[in-house]
């Protein structure tokens, strides 16, 4: 397989259309949104960013009863369906989730109902695929039904699928424990380093535009000897451009630390977002919805 390499001879290599049913979610009118309790969760792409929804979709911002879902003609996807964004900046983040129970998903989302493959195994396999390589041409990233159905996946026997997934999850649990310990150590080191910076004049630059344009101030700080440069998400597009130019011309290296979720609706940041968000994603943002800092970075970097 091109994207995975060699697989054992007794495994199959099949298209998704042969081992699952691919479906798109249903349009979710604004007037029926807002119910925090109900029989059926109606998941939007933004719900993938909710606390606890890391592997399984456990909670949603919106719920409906089964009668209303039936009246609206909304498809109720079964437990174990693997869901992921189908359009916009969220698609580029390569998020995958499994439904923890019967649920409706919105029309910015695809769901693959496993029929000839284990749900957990399908989820793990799909995490290995970069959807950015499968997007249709155009400003807004999009992946079509046909492309998803034509993806080839390795298919071991059912028992081997379970063994593989159990092993992966055991190793990931070990990595999570190591990551937690490392993160705590790094946080402490960062605190000490930043505390040291704050006590040393001229090390931290906060871009405020006090001395002129923010873009000019930002370029000077990034091109100079500042160790830490702080800017708003509105200024980030200029920072990204400067970082790319300095990396290419002077070999400088930068790390980007993004604050928690933001919703930016004006200026250059908004125009960047408009270029890669779907119309539905952007309308949700204007209505007060949130996108994660990961989505914002993906939008800026893809534009």
* CATH class label of the largest domain: Alpha Beta
Instruction: Summarize the helix and strand pattern as letters.
Output: EHEEEEHEHEEEHHEHEHEHHHH
Number of domains: 3
How many β strands by DSSP?
Answer: 12
- CATH homologous superfamily designation of the largest domain: DNA methylase specificity domains
Return the average pLDDT rounded to an integer. 82
List unreliable stretches of 5+ residues.
261-267
Strand composition percent: 5-15%
Q: What is the radius of gyration computed over CA atoms, rounded to a whole number of angstroms?
A: 22 Å
Gap from first CA to last CA: 31 Å
Count up the helices: 11
Overall structural class, as computed from helix and strand content, comes to alpha/beta
Largest sheet: 5 strands, mixed
So, CATH architecture of the largest domain?
Answer: Alpha-Beta Complex
Q: At the third CATH level, what is the topology name of the largest domain?
A: Adenine-n6-DNA-methyltransferase TaqI, Chain A, domain 2
Query: What percent of residues adopt helix (DSSP H or I)?
Result: 25-40%
């Amino acid at each position: 397989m091109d994207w995975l390499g060699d697989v054992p001879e007794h495994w199959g290599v099949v298209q998704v259309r042969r081992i699952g049913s691919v479906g798109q979610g249903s349009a979710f009118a604004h007037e029926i949104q807002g119910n925090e309790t109900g029989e059926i969760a109606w998941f939007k792409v933004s719900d993938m960013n909710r606390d606890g929804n890391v592997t399984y979709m456990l909670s949603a911002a919106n719920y409906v009863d089964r009668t209303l879902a039936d009246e609206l003609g909304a498809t109720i996807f079964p437990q174990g369906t693997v869901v992921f964004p189908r359009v916009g900046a969220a698609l580029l983040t390569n998020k995958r989730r499994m439904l923890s129970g019967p649920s409706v998903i919105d029309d910015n989302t695809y769901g693959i109902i496993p029929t000839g493959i284990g749900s957990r195994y399908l989820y793990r396999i799909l995490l290995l695929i970069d959807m950015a390589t499968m997007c249709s041409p155009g400003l807004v990233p999009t992946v079509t039904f046909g492309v998803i159905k034509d993806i080839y996946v390795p298919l071991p026997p059912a028992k081997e699928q379970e063994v593989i997934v159990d092993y992966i999850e055991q190793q990931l649990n070990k990595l999570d424990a190591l990551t937690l310990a490392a993160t705590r150590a790094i946080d402490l080191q960062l605190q000490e380093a930043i505390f040291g910076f704050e006590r040393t004049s001229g090390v931290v630059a906060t871009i405020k535009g006090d001395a002129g344009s923010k873009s000019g101030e930002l370029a000077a700080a990034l091109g100079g000897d500042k160790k830490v440069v702080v800017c708003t998400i509105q200024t980030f597009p200029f920072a990204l451009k400067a970082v790319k130019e300095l990396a290419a011309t002077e070999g400088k290296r930068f790390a980007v630390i993004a604050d928690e979720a933001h919703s930016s609706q004006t200026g250059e940041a908004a125009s960047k977002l408009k270029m890669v968000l779907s119309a539905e994603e952007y309308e949700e943002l204007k209505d007060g919805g949130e996108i994660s800092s990961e989505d914002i970075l993906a939008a800026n970097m893809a534009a």
